[in-house]
C-alpha cells in the first residue's frame, strides 16, 4: 500500500497534523502557550468530542442526515441536571436518569420523523430542537439558585495530576465508538447504509433501525454532554448549547468523515474537535471579537467541505474512466 | 432533380455515426434512416446504444465520427435547442412535465408568449394550446393542471409540446410503458394522424406487439451496431428477436445435470400489481428441485427481475406464497428471507450489489456478519479465513481483500456479490442477469460456479436475456412474457424456436407463419 492510498484511507491524519502544526506555531509565537494550556484546550475540547461523536454517527448514515437538535438537547439537559440534583450527590443517579431520558425521547422522535415519516433530517431535527428550546425557557425559571453536585463537578472540571478527568471520559468515548465502528456488525451496517442503502437492505440489514439508532445515540450523547458542561461552567444558561451546533459538524468534517455518509472514524472526530478548539483558542489569543471567531469557524467548515467535495468528484471521475 | 435519384422519403439520415465514451464504444459506424410520414421503429436490448443514438439526434450528445443529414443538408447540433430548431422533438420515457402547472403553461414552458412588461399572455397560450390539442383530437382544457390528467393525457400534452415547436421528426421513447390498453389505442390513433400530416416518428419500444402493429420501418441495434434495417411488412417477431439477440460463441461449462427428486423451492401465484392497473408479475407459480438450475428467459419488461424481487421480499405489496423445502415462508422482508435461505444476486451490481467505500472483504461478509460475531465484536480472524476461502473458491483476483471493492474489474466485482450471497448459506440462489457486463473469462467462471453450486444441492433460479445462455445452462427453462409465465420446458425438449415463441406470446404474432414463409 502506498502513502497516498494510506492517507486516503486514514483521513484523520490531516486533523492530527493540523493540531500539531497549530500548537507548534502557538508555542513559538506566544510564550504563554505551554503544555498546560494545551491540556486546557483538551478539557474544553472534550465536551465537543462527546457531542461530535454522536453527530458523526448520524452523518455516517448518509442521505444528508444530520442532527440539529443537539444544541437544545444539550441546554435542556444542563438545566434538567441542575433542577433534579439540587446540588446533592445523592440525587445524581436520578438526574442521570432524567438526562438520559431526555436524550432517548428526543432521539426517538427524531428517528421516527426521519425514518418512518420520511421528513428530511435537516428539518425534522431543527423542529424538535425548537420545541425543546421552549422547554429550556421554562426550566430557566426553576433552575435559579441551585448549586452543583460536587461529584459531577469533579467529573467535569477535576484533574488527576494535572490531567483533566473530562479528557479521560472523552477518550473513553472515542475508544468505545471507535471499536463500535471498526469491530462490530453495527459499525459495518452503518457504513453500508450510509453509502448504499439499497445494497445494504438487500444484504438483509434492517436499515431503518440502523438510522434510528444513530439519531438516538446522538441525542443521548448531547444530553450527557449538557449535564457535564453544566457542571463544568457551574450552571446553565440559555445559549450554552448554541456553539456546539456548528462545531460538532465542523469537528466531524475536519476529522475526515465523509459528509455524504458511509465513512467515519472516531479518531478523526477526536482530532477534529481538538483542532477546532485550538483554532478558536488561537483567535482568542490574537484577540478577535467573538463575531469574527464565528465567521472564521464557518469559513473553516466551508473550506474543508469544498476541498472534500472536490476530492470526491475527482475520485469518481478517475474511477469512471477506466471501466 | 438529377436523373437516377428517386424522390427520397428520407427526412433524417444518420451516416456512419460512432460515439466513443471513455472506456466504451457506444455506437460503431451506425447508419440510420428516418422516413417522412412513417413510424420508424428502433429496437435493441438494454445497452445496445438506443439512448445514445437518440441523444445524438436530439442534440444532447455529439457524435465522435459521422454526420447527421436533414433533408439532404448536413447539420451540426451544438445543443438541444439546435435540434429543436431543426424540427426534432422528443417525448421522453419519463414525462418531463410540471404537474403543478397548467397544460398551456407546460406546452409553452420556457418559450412563454409575453406581452412586454405585462407578462405572459395566458389567453394566447391557451388558444394555441387548444388548437394543438384539437389537432391531436383531444378535448383537454388548456387550463387544467397537468397533475389532474391521466398518464395517457399527459403523454398527449408531451406530444403537443413537441408539435408546438414545429417538430417534423418526433422521437418517442417507450411511450406506452405507463399507459393502459385504452390509452395505447388512443396514442396509436394520434400517431396515425401525425403520420398522415407528414411527421416522421422514431419509435422506441420493447413491446414487440406494438412494433409489428404500428411500425413502417424497423431498425435493430445490437452492441452499438445496426444488425438489421427492413420494411415492417417483410419481417416478423422472430426476425426481430434474432437480430436483437444474435449469437456468439460462449463457454458454458456444460456438465451432467445434478437434479435431485427433492423440491427445494416453490412459489405459488406470485403477483405484483402495477400502479396503473394490471400486473407486472401476473400469478407466476414455479418450483425448483435441489441441484436444479431453472433459467427464466424473456424480453425486456417481461417481469423477470420483478419476479425475483418479489421472491426476495423486496416488494411489500407483492402477493403470493413461497415455500422452502416444503415449509411455508412467513417472512415477507429481505432480512427474514435471507435467514430462511434465500439470496439474490441483483442485476444492477453497482447500485444494489456493492457498497463502494467498503473493502472487498467487508462487502463479501456484509450479509452474513452475524456468523462471524463473537459476543459483540466481529471475529476478524474467522472473517478473514472465510474471505480467503471464497476468494480461492470463486477464482477471484483479489490480492488484497482490504482494498476498496471499486478497485476490481467488473467480473471480480460480480464474484464478490456472488460470494456475499453464498456466505449467507442459501438453499436457493436467485441470480438476475449474472453474466451482464463482465468479460468472457469471468462469465465462464460464473457459469462454472453455478454448475458446481447446483451439484452441491442448491436450487438456482437465474434470469437472462441471452438465448444461448438460457439454453446451455438451464435444466429447465421458464419463459415469461407480459408478467406471465408463458412456457416451461425441460432441457430435453426445449428448442430455441419454442423458447422464442413463448417469449413473444401475447405480443401479437399470431401471423408469424405466413410472414416467415414470405421471407424465405
TrEMBL record, chain A:
Subcellular locations according to the entry: Cell membrane
InterPro entries: ABC_transp_permease
Superkingdom to which the source organism belongs: Bacteria
Alphabetical list of Pfam families matching this protein: BPD_transp_2
Transmembrane residue ranges: 12-35, 41-59, 66-88, 94-115, 122-143, 163-181, 210-232, 244-262, 269-289, 295-313
Name of the protein in its database record: ABC transporter permease
Keyword entries, A-Z: Cell membrane, Membrane, Transmembrane, Transmembrane helix
Membrane topology annotation: Multi-pass membrane protein
From TrEMBL, chain B:
Pfam families from the UniProt entry: ABC_tran
SMART domains: AAA
InterPro entries reported for this sequence: AAA+_ATPase (IPR003593), ABC_carbohydrate_import_ATPase (IPR050107), ABC_transporter-like_ATP-bd (IPR003439), ABC_transporter-like_CS (IPR017871), P-loop_NTPase (IPR027417)
All residue ranges annotated as the ABC transporter domain in the record: 12-248, 259-507
One Gene Ontology term of the molecular function aspect: ATP binding
SUPFAM superfamilies, A to Z: P-loop containing nucleoside triphosphate hydrolases
PROSITE patterns: ABC_TRANSPORTER_1, ABC_TRANSPORTER_2
Keyword line: ATP-binding, Cell membrane, Membrane, Nucleotide-binding, Repeat, Sugar transport, Translocase, Transport
PANTHER family membership: CARBOHYDRATE TRANSPORT ATP-BINDING PROTEIN MG119-RELATED, D-ALLOSE IMPORT ATP-BINDING PROTEIN ALSA-RELATED
Similarity comment: family membership: Belongs to the ABC transporter superfamily.
The protein's name: Sugar ABC transporter ATP-binding protein
Organism: Ancylobacter oerskovii
Amino acid at each position: 500500500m502506498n502513502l497516498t492510498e494510506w492517507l486516503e484511507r486514514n483521513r484523520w491524519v490531516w486533523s492530527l497534523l493540523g493540531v500539531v502544526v497549530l500548537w507548534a506555531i502557538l508555542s513559538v509565537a506566544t510564550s504563554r502557550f505551554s503544555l498546560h494550556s494545551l491540556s486546557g484546550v483538551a478539557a474544553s475540547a472534550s465536551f465537543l468530542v462527546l457531542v461530535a461523536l454522536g453527530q458523526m454517527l448520524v452523518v455516517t448514515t448518509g442521505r444528508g442526515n444530520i442532527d440539529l437538535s443537539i444544541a437544545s438537547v444539550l441546554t435542556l439537559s444542563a438545566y434538567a441536571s441542575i433542577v433534579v440534583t439540587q446540588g446533592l450527590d445523592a440525587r445524581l443517579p436520578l438526574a442521570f436518569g432524567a438526562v438520559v431520558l431526555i436524550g432517548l425521547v428526543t432521539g426517538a422522535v427524531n428517528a421516527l420523523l426521519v425514518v418512518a415519516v420520511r421528513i428530511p433530517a435537516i428539518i425534522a431535527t431543527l423542529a424538535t430542537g425548537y420545541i425543546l428550546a421552549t422547554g429550556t425557557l421554562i426550566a430557566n425559571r426553576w433552575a435559579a439558585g441551585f448549586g452543583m453536585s460536587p461529584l459531577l463537578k469533579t467529573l467535569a472540571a477535576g484533574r488527576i495530576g494535572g490531567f483533566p478527568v473530562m479528557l479521560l471520559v472523552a477518550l473513553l468515548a472515542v475508544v468505545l465508538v471507535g471499536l463500535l465502528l471498526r469491530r462490530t456488525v453495527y459499525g459495518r451496517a452503518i457504513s453500508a447504509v450510509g453509502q448504499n442503502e439499497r445494497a445494504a437492505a438487500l444484504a438483509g440489514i434492517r436499515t431503518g433501525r440502523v438510522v434510528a439508532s444513530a439519531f438516538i445515540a446522538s441525542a443521548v450523547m448531547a444530553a450527557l454532554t449538557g449535564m457535564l458542561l453544566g457542571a463544568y461552567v457551574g450552571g446553565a444558561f440559555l445559549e450554552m448549547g448554541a456553539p456546539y451546533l456548528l462545531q460538532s459538524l465542523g469537528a466531524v468534517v475536519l476529522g475526515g468523515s465523509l459528509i455524504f455518509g458511509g465513512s467515519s472514524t472516531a479518531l478523526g472526530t477526536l482530532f477534529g474537535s481538538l483542532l477546532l478548539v485550538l483554532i478558536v483558542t488561537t483567535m482568542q489569543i490574537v484577540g478577535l471579537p467573538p463575531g469574527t471567531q464565528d465567521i472564521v469557524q464557518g469559513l473553516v467548515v466551508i473550506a474543508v467541505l469544498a476541498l472534500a467535495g472536490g476530492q470526491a468528484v475527482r475520485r469518481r471521475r478517475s474511477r469512471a474512466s477506466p471501466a | 432533380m438529377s436523373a437516377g435519384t428517386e424522390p427520397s422519403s428520407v427526412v433524417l439520415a444518420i451516416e456512419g455515426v460512432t460515439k466513443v465514451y471513455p472506456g466504451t464504444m457506444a455506437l460503431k459506424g451506425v447508419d440510420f434512416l428516418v422516413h417522412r410520414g412513417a413510424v420508424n421503429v428502433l429496437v435493441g436490448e438494454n445497452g445496445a446504444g438506443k439512448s445514445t443514438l437518440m441523444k445524438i439526434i436530439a442534440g444532447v450528445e455529439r457524435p465522435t465520427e459521422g454526420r447527421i443529414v436533414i433533408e439532404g443538408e448536413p447539420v451540426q447540433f451544438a445543443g438541444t435547442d439546435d435540434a429543436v430548431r431543426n424540427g426534432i422533438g422528443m417525448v421522453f420515457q419519463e414525462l418531463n412535465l410540471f404537474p403543478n402547472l397548467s397544460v398551456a403553461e407546460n406546452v409553452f414552458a420556457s418559450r412563454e408568449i409575453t406581452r412586454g412588461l405585462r407578462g405572459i399572455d395566458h389567453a394566447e397560450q391557451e388558444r394555441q394550446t387548444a388548437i394543438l390539442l384539437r389537432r391531436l383530437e383531444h378535448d383537454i382544457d388548456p387550463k387544467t393542471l397537468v397533475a389532474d390528467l391521466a398518464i395517457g393525457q399527459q403523454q398527449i400534452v408531451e406530444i403537443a409540446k413537441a408539435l408546438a415547436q414545429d417538430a417534423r421528426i418526433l422521437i418517442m421513447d417507450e411511450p406506452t410503458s405507463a399507459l393502459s390498453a385504452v390509452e395505447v389505442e388512443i396514442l396509436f390513433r394520434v400517431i396515425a394522424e401525425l403520420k398522415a400530416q407528414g411527421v416522421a416518428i422514431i419509435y422506441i419500444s420493447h413491446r414487440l406487439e406494438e412494433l409489428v402493429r404500428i411500425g413502417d420501418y424497423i431498425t435493430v441495434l445490437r452492441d452499438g451496431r445496426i444488425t438489421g434495417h427492413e420494411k415492417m411488412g417483410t419481417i416478423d417477431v422472430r426476425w426481430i428477436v434474432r437480430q436483437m439477440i444474435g449469437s456468439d460463441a460462449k463457454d458454458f461449462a456444460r456438465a451432467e445435470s445434478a437434479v435431485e427428486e427433492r423440491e427445494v423451492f416453490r412459489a405459488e401465484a406470485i403477483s405484483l400489481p402495477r400502479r396503473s392497473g394490471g400486473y407486472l408479475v401476473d400469478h407466476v407459480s414455479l418450483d425448483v428441485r435441489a441441484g436444479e438450475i431453472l433459467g427464466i428467459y424473456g424480453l425486456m419488461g417481461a417481469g423477470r427481475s420483478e419476479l425475483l424481487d418479489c421472491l426476495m421480499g423486496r416488494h411489500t405489496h407483492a402477493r403470493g406464497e413461497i415455500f422452502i423445502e416444503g415449509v411455508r415462508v412467513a417472512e415477507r422482508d429481505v432480512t427474514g428471507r435471507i435467514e430462511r435461505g434465500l439470496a439474490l444476486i441483483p442485476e444492477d451490481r453497482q447500485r444494489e450489489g456493492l457498497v463502494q467505500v467498503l473493502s472487498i472483504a467487508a462487502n463479501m461478509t456484509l450479509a452474513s456478519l452475524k456468523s462471524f460475531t463473537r459476543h459483540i465484536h466481529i471475529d476478524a480472524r474467522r472473517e478473514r479465513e472465510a474471505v480467503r476461502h471464497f476468494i480461492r473458491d470463486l477464482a477471484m483476483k483479489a490480492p488484497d481483500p482490504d482494498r476498496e471493492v471499486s478497485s476490481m474489474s467488473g467480473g471480480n466485482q460480480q464474484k464478490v456479490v456472488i460470494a456475499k450471497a453464498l456466505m449467507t448459506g442459501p438453499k436457493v440462489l436467485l441470480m438476475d442477469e449474472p453474466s451482464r457486463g463482465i468479460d468472457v473469462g469471468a462469465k465462464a467462471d460464473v457459469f462454472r460456479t453455478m454448475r458446481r453450486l447446483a451439484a452441491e444441492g442448491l436450487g438456482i433460479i437465474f434470469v437472462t436475456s441471452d438465448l444461448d445462455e438460457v439454453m446451455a445452462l438451464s435444466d429447465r427453462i421458464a419463459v415469461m412474457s407480459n408478467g406471465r409465465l408463458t412456457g416451461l420446458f425441460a432441457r430435453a425438449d426445449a428448442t430455441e424456436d419454442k423458447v422464442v415463441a413463448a417469449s413473444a406470446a401475447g405480443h401479437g404474432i399470431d401471423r408469424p407463419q405466413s410472414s416467415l414463409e414470405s421471407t424465405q
